[in-house]
Amino acid sequence: MSLEQFKNRQTGTQNYILLDLEHAPKTSMEQFKRVIKRGVSLELFVGLGVTFKAMVKALFAKEMHTTKYPFEKLPISPRYRAIHDMLRLLESGNYRCIGCGLCEKICISNCISMDTRYDENQRKEVSEYTINFGRCIFCGYCAEVCPELAIVHGGRYETASEQRASYSLFEDMLTPIDKLSLQQEYDGFGAISPNADENIKKTPLAY
Amino acid sequence: METTTMIGQLPEVTYAGVIIKAIIILAVISAVAGFGTYVERKVLAFMQRRLGPMHVGPFGLLQIAADGIKLFTKEDIVPQHANRFIFMVAPVITAATAFIALAGVPVFPDFVIPQEVPLLGGIFVPSIASDVNVGILIVIGMMAAGLYGPLLAGMAQANKWGIIGAARTAIQFLSYEVVTGLSILAPIMIVGSLSFVEFNNYQGEHEVWLVFYQPVAFVLFLIAGFAETNRTPFDLLEHEAEIISGYATEYSGMRWGMFFIGEYANMITISVIASMVFLGGYNDLWIFPAALMIVLKIAFFFFLMLWVRASWPHIRPDQLMWLCWKVLMPIGVINMLITGIAVMLVLE
User: Fold this and answer.
1) Structural domain harbouring B256
2) Does the distance separating the beta carbons of A65 and B43 come in below 8 Å?
3) Which chain B residues are within 8 Å of A65, Cβ to Cβ?
4) Is residue B240 part of a domain?
5) Backbone φ, ψ for residue A122 (5° rounding)
6) Block mean pLDDT (10 aa), chain A, length 207
7) Domain for residue B322, yes or no?
8) Is B1 part of any domain?
9) Is the ipTM of this complex over 0.90?
10) pTM for the full model?
Protein backbone atom coordinates (compact mmCIF):
# COMPACT_ATOMS: atom_id res chain seq x y z
CA MET A 1 0.00 0.00 0.00
CA SER A 2 1.68 3.17 -1.15
CA LEU A 3 1.41 6.61 0.31
CA GLU A 4 -0.25 7.96 -2.84
CA GLN A 5 -3.45 6.17 -2.00
CA PHE A 6 -3.74 8.02 1.25
CA LYS A 7 -3.14 11.40 -0.32
CA ASN A 8 -6.32 11.11 -2.31
CA ARG A 9 -8.91 12.76 -0.13
CA GLN A 10 -11.80 11.98 -2.47
CA THR A 11 -12.34 8.68 -0.78
CA GLY A 12 -15.27 6.43 -0.27
CA THR A 13 -17.35 5.06 -3.08
CA GLN A 14 -19.17 8.36 -3.58
CA ASN A 15 -22.13 6.33 -4.78
CA TYR A 16 -24.54 7.88 -2.36
CA ILE A 17 -28.19 7.03 -2.85
CA LEU A 18 -30.33 10.09 -2.48
CA LEU A 19 -33.54 9.28 -0.67
CA ASP A 20 -36.52 10.03 -2.82
CA LEU A 21 -38.67 11.59 -0.15
CA GLU A 22 -42.03 12.45 -1.62
CA HIS A 23 -44.17 15.23 -0.29
CA ALA A 24 -46.85 14.39 2.21
CA PRO A 25 -50.17 14.31 0.38
CA LYS A 26 -52.21 17.46 0.85
CA THR A 27 -55.54 16.74 -0.76
CA SER A 28 -57.55 13.62 -0.19
CA MET A 29 -57.15 12.72 -3.87
CA GLU A 30 -53.37 12.71 -3.47
CA GLN A 31 -53.77 10.61 -0.37
CA PHE A 32 -55.94 8.15 -2.27
CA LYS A 33 -53.41 7.95 -5.08
CA ARG A 34 -50.63 7.22 -2.63
CA VAL A 35 -52.62 4.45 -0.99
CA ILE A 36 -53.28 2.86 -4.37
CA LYS A 37 -49.65 3.20 -5.39
CA ARG A 38 -48.35 1.67 -2.20
CA GLY A 39 -51.00 -1.02 -2.14
CA VAL A 40 -50.56 -2.16 -5.72
CA SER A 41 -46.79 -1.91 -6.07
CA LEU A 42 -46.41 -4.98 -3.82
CA GLU A 43 -43.55 -3.50 -1.85
CA LEU A 44 -44.56 -5.63 1.11
CA PHE A 45 -43.52 -8.75 -0.72
CA VAL A 46 -40.01 -7.41 -1.18
CA GLY A 47 -39.72 -7.55 2.61
CA LEU A 48 -40.96 -11.13 2.65
CA GLY A 49 -38.39 -12.00 -0.01
CA VAL A 50 -35.56 -10.48 2.00
CA THR A 51 -36.31 -12.52 5.11
CA PHE A 52 -36.83 -15.71 3.11
CA LYS A 53 -33.51 -15.25 1.36
CA ALA A 54 -31.86 -14.63 4.71
CA MET A 55 -33.32 -17.89 6.00
CA VAL A 56 -32.19 -19.91 2.99
CA LYS A 57 -28.71 -18.43 3.19
CA ALA A 58 -28.50 -19.05 6.92
CA LEU A 59 -29.56 -22.66 6.53
CA PHE A 60 -27.77 -23.70 3.36
CA ALA A 61 -25.05 -21.16 2.57
CA LYS A 62 -23.48 -21.14 6.04
CA GLU A 63 -24.29 -17.53 6.74
CA MET A 64 -25.44 -18.23 10.27
CA HIS A 65 -24.13 -15.50 12.48
CA THR A 66 -24.39 -17.24 15.81
CA THR A 67 -21.23 -18.02 17.74
CA LYS A 68 -21.92 -20.76 20.24
CA TYR A 69 -20.10 -18.76 22.84
CA PRO A 70 -18.97 -21.05 25.63
CA PHE A 71 -17.96 -23.62 23.03
CA GLU A 72 -16.66 -21.26 20.37
CA LYS A 73 -14.88 -17.99 20.88
CA LEU A 74 -14.21 -15.17 18.51
CA PRO A 75 -10.52 -14.27 18.13
CA ILE A 76 -9.58 -11.11 19.94
CA SER A 77 -6.98 -8.52 19.03
CA PRO A 78 -3.42 -9.06 20.29
CA ARG A 79 -3.60 -5.59 21.77
CA TYR A 80 -6.43 -6.60 24.05
CA ARG A 81 -5.45 -6.20 27.69
CA ALA A 82 -6.85 -9.12 29.65
CA ILE A 83 -5.37 -11.34 32.37
CA HIS A 84 -1.58 -11.24 32.25
CA ASP A 85 0.63 -14.00 30.87
CA MET A 86 4.09 -14.79 32.12
CA LEU A 87 6.22 -15.97 29.20
CA ARG A 88 9.10 -18.44 29.15
CA LEU A 89 12.33 -18.47 27.25
CA LEU A 90 11.87 -20.65 24.21
CA GLU A 91 15.29 -22.35 24.38
CA SER A 92 15.65 -23.25 28.03
CA GLY A 93 12.05 -23.23 29.09
CA ASN A 94 12.95 -21.09 32.06
CA TYR A 95 10.73 -18.16 32.88
CA ARG A 96 11.84 -14.83 31.51
CA CYS A 97 11.24 -12.74 34.59
CA ILE A 98 14.52 -11.49 36.04
CA GLY A 99 12.95 -10.07 39.16
CA CYS A 100 13.90 -6.49 38.42
CA GLY A 101 10.76 -5.15 40.11
CA LEU A 102 9.95 -2.50 37.50
CA CYS A 103 6.41 -3.74 37.07
CA GLU A 104 5.83 -3.59 40.79
CA LYS A 105 7.22 -0.08 40.86
CA ILE A 106 5.23 1.31 37.94
CA CYS A 107 1.91 -0.29 38.83
CA ILE A 108 -0.40 2.64 39.48
CA SER A 109 -2.92 0.66 41.43
CA ASN A 110 -0.31 -1.09 43.53
CA CYS A 111 -1.63 -4.52 42.74
CA ILE A 112 1.61 -6.33 41.84
CA SER A 113 3.60 -7.63 44.72
CA MET A 114 6.77 -9.65 44.29
CA ASP A 115 9.59 -11.04 46.33
CA THR A 116 12.98 -12.19 45.06
CA ARG A 117 15.97 -14.06 46.42
CA TYR A 118 19.29 -15.47 45.24
CA ASP A 119 19.26 -19.10 44.29
CA GLU A 120 22.18 -21.53 44.76
CA ASN A 121 23.95 -20.17 41.64
CA GLN A 122 23.66 -16.63 42.96
CA ARG A 123 21.12 -15.85 40.25
CA LYS A 124 18.12 -13.77 41.15
CA GLU A 125 14.89 -15.73 41.13
CA VAL A 126 11.30 -14.81 41.80
CA SER A 127 10.04 -16.42 44.97
CA GLU A 128 6.66 -14.70 45.20
CA TYR A 129 4.73 -12.99 42.46
CA THR A 130 1.04 -12.13 42.70
CA ILE A 131 -1.27 -9.69 41.01
CA ASN A 132 -4.35 -8.60 42.90
CA PHE A 133 -6.94 -8.61 40.15
CA GLY A 134 -9.44 -6.98 42.44
CA ARG A 135 -7.33 -3.87 42.13
CA CYS A 136 -5.77 -4.22 38.68
CA ILE A 137 -7.13 -1.71 36.19
CA PHE A 138 -5.49 -3.42 33.19
CA CYS A 139 -3.65 -0.28 32.17
CA GLY A 140 -0.82 -2.25 30.63
CA TYR A 141 2.06 -0.29 32.21
CA CYS A 142 3.63 -3.45 33.59
CA ALA A 143 3.79 -5.01 30.14
CA GLU A 144 5.10 -1.78 28.68
CA VAL A 145 7.88 -1.38 31.19
CA CYS A 146 9.05 -4.99 31.26
CA PRO A 147 12.57 -5.11 29.75
CA GLU A 148 12.42 -8.85 29.05
CA LEU A 149 8.89 -9.09 27.55
CA ALA A 150 8.25 -11.45 30.44
CA ILE A 151 4.90 -10.08 31.59
CA VAL A 152 2.43 -9.45 28.80
CA HIS A 153 -1.30 -9.19 28.52
CA GLY A 154 -3.00 -12.37 27.39
CA GLY A 155 -6.42 -13.10 25.97
CA ARG A 156 -8.14 -14.64 28.98
CA TYR A 157 -11.05 -12.28 29.41
CA GLU A 158 -13.38 -14.59 31.36
CA THR A 159 -12.42 -13.53 34.84
CA ALA A 160 -15.28 -14.99 36.83
CA SER A 161 -13.93 -17.12 39.61
CA GLU A 162 -14.83 -18.37 43.04
CA GLN A 163 -11.92 -16.65 44.65
CA ARG A 164 -9.86 -13.66 43.87
CA ALA A 165 -6.60 -15.59 44.01
CA SER A 166 -7.50 -17.91 41.17
CA TYR A 167 -5.66 -16.13 38.40
CA SER A 168 -3.14 -14.16 40.29
CA LEU A 169 -0.35 -16.57 41.21
CA PHE A 170 2.81 -16.69 39.18
CA GLU A 171 2.29 -20.33 38.22
CA ASP A 172 -1.24 -19.65 36.98
CA MET A 173 -0.04 -16.94 34.64
CA LEU A 174 3.11 -18.74 33.51
CA THR A 175 3.00 -20.56 30.19
CA PRO A 176 2.65 -24.28 30.96
CA ILE A 177 5.91 -26.04 30.18
CA ASP A 178 4.26 -28.58 27.88
CA LYS A 179 2.64 -25.79 25.87
CA LEU A 180 5.89 -23.94 25.35
CA SER A 181 5.82 -24.52 21.61
CA LEU A 182 2.41 -22.83 21.44
CA GLN A 183 3.61 -19.72 23.23
CA GLN A 184 2.78 -16.62 21.21
CA GLU A 185 5.51 -14.07 20.99
CA TYR A 186 4.38 -10.63 21.99
CA ASP A 187 5.61 -7.73 19.89
CA GLY A 188 5.60 -5.38 22.80
CA PHE A 189 3.08 -3.02 24.19
CA GLY A 190 1.14 -1.28 21.43
CA ALA A 191 1.73 -4.03 18.89
CA ILE A 192 -0.53 -3.96 15.88
CA SER A 193 -2.83 -6.80 14.91
CA PRO A 194 -1.46 -9.35 12.45
CA ASN A 195 -4.26 -8.42 10.06
CA ALA A 196 -3.81 -4.67 10.50
CA ASP A 197 -3.34 -4.10 6.78
CA GLU A 198 -6.73 -5.58 6.01
CA ASN A 199 -8.38 -3.40 8.59
CA ILE A 200 -6.99 -0.13 7.28
CA LYS A 201 -9.63 2.03 5.70
CA LYS A 202 -9.35 5.47 4.31
CA THR A 203 -11.38 8.07 6.08
CA PRO A 204 -14.51 8.48 3.96
CA LEU A 205 -14.45 12.24 4.11
CA ALA A 206 -14.02 14.62 1.24
CA TYR A 207 -12.68 17.91 2.52
CA MET B 1 -73.17 -48.49 20.25
CA GLU B 2 -73.32 -50.56 17.14
CA THR B 3 -71.32 -49.53 14.15
CA THR B 4 -72.22 -50.96 10.82
CA THR B 5 -70.22 -50.11 7.78
CA MET B 6 -72.12 -50.38 4.55
CA ILE B 7 -70.35 -50.30 1.26
CA GLY B 8 -70.75 -47.13 -0.72
CA GLN B 9 -72.37 -45.22 2.11
CA LEU B 10 -70.85 -43.23 4.92
CA PRO B 11 -71.14 -45.12 8.20
CA GLU B 12 -73.14 -43.73 11.06
CA VAL B 13 -71.51 -41.21 13.35
CA THR B 14 -71.67 -42.53 16.89
CA TYR B 15 -71.05 -40.90 20.25
CA ALA B 16 -67.86 -42.93 20.60
CA GLY B 17 -66.59 -41.61 17.29
CA VAL B 18 -67.27 -38.01 18.28
CA ILE B 19 -65.62 -38.44 21.66
CA ILE B 20 -62.56 -40.00 20.05
CA LYS B 21 -62.48 -37.16 17.56
CA ALA B 22 -62.71 -34.59 20.36
CA ILE B 23 -59.84 -36.23 22.21
CA ILE B 24 -57.79 -36.35 19.02
CA ILE B 25 -58.42 -32.66 18.36
CA LEU B 26 -57.61 -31.69 21.93
CA ALA B 27 -54.44 -33.78 22.08
CA VAL B 28 -53.17 -33.01 18.61
CA ILE B 29 -53.94 -29.30 18.62
CA SER B 30 -52.48 -28.81 22.11
CA ALA B 31 -49.35 -30.62 21.03
CA VAL B 32 -49.19 -28.74 17.75
CA ALA B 33 -49.77 -25.44 19.53
CA GLY B 34 -46.89 -26.23 21.86
CA PHE B 35 -44.78 -27.32 18.94
CA GLY B 36 -45.80 -24.12 17.19
CA THR B 37 -43.93 -22.06 19.76
CA TYR B 38 -40.80 -24.05 18.98
CA VAL B 39 -41.31 -23.68 15.23
CA GLU B 40 -41.91 -19.96 15.64
CA ARG B 41 -38.70 -19.47 17.56
CA LYS B 42 -36.74 -21.55 15.06
CA VAL B 43 -38.14 -19.87 11.96
CA LEU B 44 -37.72 -16.38 13.37
CA ALA B 45 -34.18 -17.29 14.36
CA PHE B 46 -33.29 -18.56 10.89
CA MET B 47 -34.72 -15.46 9.27
CA GLN B 48 -32.49 -13.37 11.52
CA ARG B 49 -29.53 -15.70 10.89
CA ARG B 50 -29.56 -17.07 14.40
CA LEU B 51 -29.76 -20.66 15.57
CA GLY B 52 -32.75 -20.51 17.89
CA PRO B 53 -33.19 -23.02 20.69
CA MET B 54 -30.34 -25.52 20.47
CA HIS B 55 -29.40 -27.04 23.79
CA VAL B 56 -32.46 -28.85 25.22
CA GLY B 57 -32.61 -32.11 23.31
CA PRO B 58 -31.57 -32.62 19.69
CA PHE B 59 -31.90 -29.30 17.81
CA GLY B 60 -33.61 -27.90 20.90
CA LEU B 61 -36.68 -30.05 20.32
CA LEU B 62 -37.28 -30.59 24.02
CA GLN B 63 -37.44 -26.85 24.58
CA ILE B 64 -41.22 -27.24 24.62
CA ALA B 65 -40.93 -29.61 27.57
CA ALA B 66 -38.63 -27.21 29.37
CA ASP B 67 -41.02 -24.33 28.74
CA GLY B 68 -43.94 -26.46 29.91
CA ILE B 69 -42.22 -27.40 33.15
CA LYS B 70 -41.38 -23.77 33.73
CA LEU B 71 -44.95 -22.63 33.09
CA PHE B 72 -46.50 -25.32 35.29
CA THR B 73 -44.22 -24.78 38.24
CA LYS B 74 -44.21 -21.01 38.23
CA GLU B 75 -45.99 -19.20 41.03
CA ASP B 76 -49.56 -18.25 40.22
CA ILE B 77 -49.72 -14.59 41.17
CA VAL B 78 -52.93 -12.62 41.46
CA PRO B 79 -52.16 -8.92 41.84
CA GLN B 80 -53.42 -7.00 44.84
CA HIS B 81 -56.29 -4.93 43.53
CA ALA B 82 -57.33 -7.28 40.79
CA ASN B 83 -60.81 -8.72 40.56
CA ARG B 84 -59.76 -12.15 41.69
CA PHE B 85 -62.41 -14.34 40.12
CA ILE B 86 -62.47 -12.68 36.71
CA PHE B 87 -58.69 -12.50 36.65
CA MET B 88 -58.44 -16.24 37.19
CA VAL B 89 -61.21 -17.17 34.76
CA ALA B 90 -60.17 -14.98 31.82
CA PRO B 91 -57.36 -17.20 30.42
CA VAL B 92 -59.70 -20.18 30.50
CA ILE B 93 -62.11 -18.28 28.24
CA THR B 94 -59.39 -17.76 25.65
CA ALA B 95 -58.24 -21.37 25.67
CA ALA B 96 -61.75 -22.84 25.82
CA THR B 97 -63.22 -20.73 23.00
CA ALA B 98 -60.22 -21.52 20.83
CA PHE B 99 -60.81 -25.25 21.26
CA ILE B 100 -64.61 -25.02 20.97
CA ALA B 101 -64.09 -23.27 17.65
CA LEU B 102 -62.10 -26.30 16.48
CA ALA B 103 -65.14 -28.54 17.12
CA GLY B 104 -66.79 -27.23 13.97
CA VAL B 105 -63.69 -27.47 11.79
CA PRO B 106 -62.73 -30.59 9.84
CA VAL B 107 -59.13 -31.26 10.78
CA PHE B 108 -58.34 -34.69 9.35
CA PRO B 109 -60.23 -36.83 6.82
CA ASP B 110 -62.73 -39.44 7.97
CA PHE B 111 -61.35 -42.79 8.96
CA VAL B 112 -62.47 -46.05 10.54
CA ILE B 113 -60.40 -47.48 13.36
CA PRO B 114 -59.14 -50.87 12.11
CA GLN B 115 -60.82 -53.98 13.53
CA GLU B 116 -57.54 -55.19 15.06
CA VAL B 117 -57.55 -52.43 17.68
CA PRO B 118 -59.14 -53.79 20.87
CA LEU B 119 -62.27 -52.07 22.26
CA LEU B 120 -62.26 -49.29 19.68
CA GLY B 121 -62.06 -51.42 16.51
CA GLY B 122 -64.50 -50.52 13.78
CA ILE B 123 -65.56 -47.17 15.17
CA PHE B 124 -66.04 -44.55 12.49
CA VAL B 125 -64.26 -41.30 13.36
CA PRO B 126 -65.72 -38.37 11.43
CA SER B 127 -63.60 -35.63 9.95
CA ILE B 128 -65.42 -33.06 12.00
CA ALA B 129 -66.42 -33.31 15.64
CA SER B 130 -69.86 -31.81 15.14
CA ASP B 131 -70.94 -31.45 11.53
CA VAL B 132 -73.61 -28.86 12.17
CA ASN B 133 -74.86 -27.25 9.00
CA VAL B 134 -73.83 -23.79 10.21
CA GLY B 135 -70.22 -24.76 10.87
CA ILE B 136 -68.68 -21.53 9.68
CA LEU B 137 -70.96 -19.45 11.87
CA ILE B 138 -70.06 -21.51 14.93
CA VAL B 139 -66.34 -21.24 14.29
CA ILE B 140 -66.37 -17.52 13.60
CA GLY B 141 -68.77 -16.89 16.46
CA MET B 142 -66.63 -18.87 18.89
CA MET B 143 -63.50 -17.05 17.79
CA ALA B 144 -65.35 -13.78 18.30
CA ALA B 145 -66.37 -14.92 21.79
CA GLY B 146 -62.67 -15.36 22.45
CA LEU B 147 -62.59 -11.59 22.62
CA TYR B 148 -63.81 -11.87 26.22
CA GLY B 149 -60.58 -13.54 27.33
CA PRO B 150 -58.23 -10.61 26.71
CA LEU B 151 -60.96 -8.06 27.41
CA LEU B 152 -61.85 -9.36 30.88
CA ALA B 153 -58.22 -10.13 31.68
CA GLY B 154 -57.17 -6.59 30.89
CA MET B 155 -60.01 -5.02 32.84
CA ALA B 156 -59.69 -7.28 35.89
CA GLN B 157 -56.00 -6.86 36.58
CA ALA B 158 -55.95 -3.27 37.91
CA ASN B 159 -53.12 -2.32 35.60
CA LYS B 160 -53.02 0.59 33.17
CA TRP B 161 -51.26 -1.39 30.47
CA GLY B 162 -53.85 -4.11 30.89
CA ILE B 163 -56.67 -1.59 30.42
CA ILE B 164 -55.09 -0.22 27.25
CA GLY B 165 -54.57 -3.76 26.01
CA ALA B 166 -58.20 -4.60 26.73
CA ALA B 167 -59.41 -1.49 24.91
CA ARG B 168 -57.29 -2.36 21.90
CA THR B 169 -58.62 -5.92 22.02
CA ALA B 170 -62.17 -4.67 21.87
CA ILE B 171 -61.67 -2.31 18.94
CA GLN B 172 -59.46 -4.68 16.98
CA PHE B 173 -61.48 -7.88 17.34
CA LEU B 174 -64.86 -6.23 16.88
CA SER B 175 -63.72 -4.28 13.82
CA TYR B 176 -62.14 -7.19 12.07
CA GLU B 177 -65.11 -9.47 12.73
CA VAL B 178 -66.84 -7.33 10.09
CA VAL B 179 -64.12 -7.97 7.53
CA THR B 180 -64.01 -11.69 8.29
CA GLY B 181 -67.74 -12.00 7.89
CA LEU B 182 -67.94 -9.98 4.69
CA SER B 183 -64.99 -11.73 3.07
CA ILE B 184 -66.21 -15.23 3.82
CA LEU B 185 -69.76 -14.37 2.72
CA ALA B 186 -68.74 -14.40 -0.94
CA PRO B 187 -67.52 -18.04 -1.00
CA ILE B 188 -70.58 -18.99 1.05
CA MET B 189 -72.78 -17.55 -1.68
CA ILE B 190 -70.94 -19.53 -4.33
CA VAL B 191 -71.10 -22.84 -2.46
CA GLY B 192 -74.53 -22.21 -0.97
CA SER B 193 -73.79 -23.81 2.38
CA LEU B 194 -72.32 -22.95 5.75
CA SER B 195 -70.85 -26.42 6.33
CA PHE B 196 -67.14 -26.93 5.89
CA VAL B 197 -67.76 -30.42 4.53
CA GLU B 198 -69.90 -28.90 1.77
CA PHE B 199 -67.08 -26.49 0.97
CA ASN B 200 -64.68 -29.39 0.73
CA ASN B 201 -67.02 -31.43 -1.44
CA TYR B 202 -67.79 -28.47 -3.71
CA GLN B 203 -64.13 -27.90 -4.40
CA GLY B 204 -63.58 -31.63 -4.85
CA GLU B 205 -66.41 -31.98 -7.37
CA HIS B 206 -65.58 -28.88 -9.38
CA GLU B 207 -61.86 -29.59 -9.13
CA VAL B 208 -61.08 -25.97 -8.50
CA TRP B 209 -59.86 -24.02 -5.51
CA LEU B 210 -62.17 -21.23 -4.47
CA VAL B 211 -59.22 -18.86 -4.25
CA PHE B 212 -59.35 -18.63 -8.06
CA TYR B 213 -62.98 -17.55 -7.92
CA GLN B 214 -62.51 -15.30 -4.91
CA PRO B 215 -58.97 -13.88 -4.76
CA VAL B 216 -60.12 -10.63 -3.17
CA ALA B 217 -62.07 -12.42 -0.47
CA PHE B 218 -59.05 -14.62 0.19
CA VAL B 219 -56.74 -11.65 0.74
CA LEU B 220 -59.32 -9.91 2.92
CA PHE B 221 -59.86 -13.03 4.98
CA LEU B 222 -56.13 -13.50 5.45
CA ILE B 223 -55.67 -9.91 6.63
CA ALA B 224 -58.62 -10.17 8.99
CA GLY B 225 -57.35 -13.54 10.19
CA PHE B 226 -54.01 -12.00 11.11
CA ALA B 227 -55.86 -9.31 13.06
CA GLU B 228 -58.09 -11.79 14.86
CA THR B 229 -55.26 -14.06 15.87
CA ASN B 230 -53.33 -11.03 17.06
CA ARG B 231 -50.33 -11.68 14.81
CA THR B 232 -47.66 -9.22 13.67
CA PRO B 233 -48.67 -6.50 11.62
CA PHE B 234 -51.63 -6.23 14.01
CA ASP B 235 -50.16 -7.29 17.34
CA LEU B 236 -51.31 -4.16 19.09
CA LEU B 237 -52.92 -5.98 22.00
CA GLU B 238 -49.68 -6.84 23.63
CA HIS B 239 -47.13 -4.83 21.78
CA GLU B 240 -44.19 -4.82 24.18
CA ALA B 241 -42.62 -1.55 23.14
CA GLU B 242 -45.78 0.38 23.90
CA ILE B 243 -47.87 -1.37 26.50
CA ILE B 244 -45.51 -3.90 28.17
CA SER B 245 -47.56 -6.96 27.38
CA GLY B 246 -51.05 -5.50 27.15
CA TYR B 247 -53.74 -7.68 28.65
CA ALA B 248 -51.18 -10.31 29.71
CA THR B 249 -49.01 -7.92 31.72
CA GLU B 250 -49.92 -9.24 35.16
CA TYR B 251 -50.20 -12.90 34.23
CA SER B 252 -47.63 -15.52 35.05
CA GLY B 253 -47.24 -19.26 34.91
CA MET B 254 -49.91 -21.48 33.42
CA ARG B 255 -52.54 -18.73 33.24
CA TRP B 256 -50.26 -16.82 30.93
CA GLY B 257 -49.57 -20.11 29.12
CA MET B 258 -53.29 -20.61 28.50
CA PHE B 259 -53.49 -17.32 26.64
CA PHE B 260 -50.75 -18.56 24.37
CA ILE B 261 -52.21 -22.01 23.85
CA GLY B 262 -55.44 -20.24 22.89
CA GLU B 263 -53.63 -17.91 20.55
CA TYR B 264 -51.77 -20.70 18.80
CA ALA B 265 -54.94 -22.79 18.57
CA ASN B 266 -56.61 -19.76 16.95
CA MET B 267 -53.73 -19.51 14.49
CA ILE B 268 -54.33 -23.14 13.57
CA THR B 269 -58.08 -22.53 13.27
CA ILE B 270 -57.54 -19.62 10.91
CA SER B 271 -55.09 -21.73 8.92
CA VAL B 272 -57.63 -24.54 8.72
CA ILE B 273 -60.46 -22.22 7.64
CA ALA B 274 -58.31 -20.60 4.99
CA SER B 275 -57.24 -24.01 3.66
CA MET B 276 -60.77 -25.43 3.78
CA VAL B 277 -62.63 -22.50 2.28
CA PHE B 278 -60.14 -21.14 -0.22
CA LEU B 279 -57.45 -23.72 -0.92
CA GLY B 280 -59.42 -26.84 -1.69
CA GLY B 281 -59.66 -28.49 1.72
CA TYR B 282 -58.75 -32.12 2.14
CA ASN B 283 -59.09 -33.21 -1.46
CA ASP B 284 -56.48 -35.22 -3.30
CA LEU B 285 -54.28 -33.20 -5.58
CA TRP B 286 -52.53 -34.97 -8.41
CA ILE B 287 -50.51 -37.70 -6.63
CA PHE B 288 -50.67 -36.24 -3.15
CA PRO B 289 -53.18 -37.86 -0.79
CA ALA B 290 -55.81 -35.82 1.04
CA ALA B 291 -54.30 -36.06 4.52
CA LEU B 292 -50.94 -34.79 3.31
CA MET B 293 -52.52 -31.96 1.34
CA ILE B 294 -54.47 -30.54 4.29
CA VAL B 295 -51.44 -30.77 6.58
CA LEU B 296 -49.29 -29.03 3.97
CA LYS B 297 -51.83 -26.24 3.52
CA ILE B 298 -52.24 -25.66 7.24
CA ALA B 299 -48.49 -25.71 7.69
CA PHE B 300 -48.11 -23.17 4.90
CA PHE B 301 -50.47 -20.71 6.54
CA PHE B 302 -48.81 -21.21 9.90
CA PHE B 303 -45.44 -20.58 8.31
CA LEU B 304 -46.83 -17.50 6.56
CA MET B 305 -47.77 -16.03 9.94
CA LEU B 306 -44.23 -16.53 11.26
CA TRP B 307 -42.73 -15.28 8.00
CA VAL B 308 -44.76 -12.09 8.13
CA ARG B 309 -43.77 -11.59 11.74
CA ALA B 310 -40.11 -11.74 10.77
CA SER B 311 -40.55 -9.34 7.87
CA TRP B 312 -43.04 -6.61 8.55
CA PRO B 313 -43.28 -3.88 11.14
CA HIS B 314 -46.52 -3.47 13.02
CA ILE B 315 -48.92 -0.62 12.38
CA ARG B 316 -50.40 2.06 14.60
CA PRO B 317 -53.87 1.62 16.14
CA ASP B 318 -55.28 4.46 14.03
CA GLN B 319 -53.87 2.86 10.89
CA LEU B 320 -55.47 -0.39 11.98
CA MET B 321 -58.89 1.24 12.23
CA TRP B 322 -58.35 3.13 8.99
CA LEU B 323 -57.41 -0.08 7.21
CA CYS B 324 -60.44 -1.92 8.55
CA TRP B 325 -63.21 0.62 8.06
CA LYS B 326 -62.02 2.68 5.11
CA VAL B 327 -60.27 0.07 2.98
CA LEU B 328 -61.09 -3.52 3.77
CA MET B 329 -64.77 -3.15 4.58
CA PRO B 330 -65.68 -1.25 1.39
CA ILE B 331 -63.70 -3.73 -0.69
CA GLY B 332 -65.47 -6.55 1.12
CA VAL B 333 -68.88 -5.07 0.40
CA ILE B 334 -68.09 -4.46 -3.26
CA ASN B 335 -66.69 -7.97 -3.62
CA MET B 336 -69.82 -9.38 -2.04
CA LEU B 337 -72.08 -7.36 -4.35
CA ILE B 338 -70.21 -8.42 -7.47
CA THR B 339 -70.22 -12.05 -6.35
CA GLY B 340 -73.96 -11.86 -5.68
CA ILE B 341 -74.69 -10.45 -9.13
CA ALA B 342 -72.43 -13.00 -10.79
CA VAL B 343 -74.01 -15.90 -8.90
CA MET B 344 -77.48 -14.62 -9.82
CA LEU B 345 -76.61 -14.32 -13.51
CA VAL B 346 -74.98 -17.74 -13.66
CA LEU B 347 -77.87 -19.44 -11.90
CA GLU B 348 -80.49 -17.92 -14.19
Assistant:
1) 15-347
2) no
3) 49-50
4) yes
5) 60, 30
6) 66 73 84 81 84 89 84 80 86 87 91 90 87 86 87 82 74 83 72 73 64
7) yes
8) no
9) no
10) 0.76
